[in-house]
Amino acid sequence: MTMDFDPDDRELRIQRLARDLAVTQLAPLAAERDRTAAFPERELRALAQHGLLGVNVPATYGGAEAGMVAFSLAMQEIARADASVAVTMAVTNLVADVICRFGSEQQRRTYVPQITSGSAVAASFAVSESQAGSDLAAMTTTAVRTATGWRIDGAKQWITSGDRAGVIVLGAKTNPQAGKKGISAFIVAGGTPGMTAGKPEEKMGQRGSSTVPLVFDRCEVPADALLGKEGEGLPLVYAALEGGRIGIASLALGIGRAALDAATRYAQERVQFGAAIATFQAIQFLLADVATEHDAGHLLTMRAARGKDLGRMVTREAAMAKLFASEAAGRATDAAIQIMGASGYMRKNPVERLARDARVTRIYEGTSEVLRLVIARSLLEQQGKTIPE
Ligand SMILES: Cc1cc2nc3c(=O)[nH]c(=O)nc-3n(C[C@H](O)[C@H](O)[C@H](O)COP(=O)(O)OP(=O)(O)OC[C@H]3O[C@@H](n4cnc5c(N)ncnc54)[C@H](O)[C@@H]3O)c2cc1C
User: Fold this and answer.
1) Which domains does the chain have, with CATH numbers?
2) Ligand 1 neighbourhood includes 61 CB (under 6 angstroms)
3) What is the pTM assigned to this prediction?
4) Of the residues 29, 134, 147, 308, which has the fewest C-beta atoms closer than 10 A?
């Protein structure tokens, strides 16, 4: 089956818009946000104004209705300037997408415009718990039916924007005896009594994004807070992660591209032994490898994004894109530091931040190891063999 990876005019327009916004409004204060761990609220409002908090969301709900290729291109531009803003944007888009896909018309009309307009500030996707990271079926947060709706009890961990989000999609067990078939998804409005955010984590990178524990203590939500069908929360989470992984692959590509740009510039300016270090083949080879891996990651990501826009299942493609792009971003930022020598190792140099920002892309929304399992499972299933989950 043929597939055209080239962006069309509309996708290129979104990319340019994101690039302009990134260069003029995000890049100048990215280092400061990293230093102070300041949440990018003003920046998110700017993204909302330009349709970037619902790139793949239908216009009826305030989205740009531009698809996943446009989303990926926009994410890459935002991440080139500031990965903290990019991860907040990625999760917010994911939640808008998942409500559009699995929500009732009433849920779509109530929550999605709040997200796309920026009035919700951000959106959160709360599935991980202290004892349930890769193994989401081990979650212990429960949702029990009451006379008027559901009562949620438990604690989520490492939730991006959990203390800021106006809309939170949550996974909880509605039938703890049923294992992975006993998980359901819910939409909870920010500020609902019984839900409390803990102190933001002190992180190695992406410090301008907020990562918090969320505690649910007899948190009462109405009956229509259930998102999708009861007991079908885990397939919903996996479906959301398919798009989410395209977002994180794009984020990693943006970081890698920023590292390549900085290293290329520096190599042409830095003189040693009477010549620019860019004239040394050892430096050229580093740059060539980073550029090649960047393009390979980009093509993998475009394949997944275009496939999704065409309505195909892209579980394997999205996993490959995130696995490759996130590992390549680690190698790209490391090579950039090597090319810049001592100067690259200093706090005031942007590549030092890029290296810290890149690291977590191998961990969230599926670790590299879990992604390899996803890819291998899909390969083996295709060969007519099955492996136990
Ligand atoms: C900055 C940040 C933001 C995050 N944001 C969110 C968010 O918004 N919402 C949310 O729900 N979660 C979020 N997370 C949590 C993230 O999704 C989890 O950290 C991730 O799923 C991995 O879980 P874990 O950290 O518990 O690692 P574990 O699952 O404990 O894994 C530890 C190690 O064991 C490996 N491992 C685990 N199982 C296997 C296996 N079967 N085979 C081989 N190796 C295995 C892993 O790859 C890893 O190397 C965030 C995390 C971070 C760091």
Assistant:
1) 9-121 (1.10.540.10), 124-231 (2.40.110.10), 234-382 (1.20.140.10)
2) no
3) 0.97
4) 147
